[in-house]
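Case study 2.
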Amino acid sequence: MIIFPAIDIKDGNCVRLFKGDFSTVEKVASDYLETAKGFENAGAEWIHMVDLDGAKEGRPVNTEIYTDVAEKTNLKVELGGGIRNLETIREYLDMGISRVIIGSAALKNPKLVRDAVEKFGSEKIAVGIDAVNKMVATEGWLETSDVNYIDLANQMIDSGVKYFIFTDISKDGTLSGVNAEQLKELNDAVKGRAFITASGGVHTIDDIKICAEMGLYGTICGKSIYKGTLDLKEAIKYANVE
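Prediction:
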């Protein structure tokens, strides 16, 4: 299983939110590049980055930060937030981003997902499924749809998507543990057809164990690393053994 340490960017700063609420923004690190290099030194191969400004504005913001990490570390950068068209995807991939995440646009513009997978390949595209009570949220989590999270995954698989990041928004940034029940439902529903990365709620090594035993592709860890409740090196070691 891959451990994805996370850096969320708002106004150029490394931050974390509580349940996706922009009013709860908390600066968690002083320097994004130093933080990323710390993750690399701990053994991480990937980094999960989110452009919070981009998610809210529906366009790329803070671009130089993500490309900086891609250029100045050996980490593979997985990036989401504000990615709404093929041109943005192409630009990010050309700049050295390893995988882009399509979030809100997957629900509102499924053709974009189909075209992106066809043009850039399934390895380069992930779909972020962010849900509240199993219903998909959009627009930087500011709106909730009437689409079930598993239904969206199945639609996206039909479009060629292989990589999904599932976030239970009620868990995100709370350090209250992953939503094992919903993750298992989703993983079981797509098994053999797609790969699931867990996001939201990771608190201790026990959450890593739960996700690994479930057979997930990856787990994203943010606040738990910054708050010191999870040792990144230990998490990576456990995930690699599993």
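The chain has a mean pLDDT of 92.
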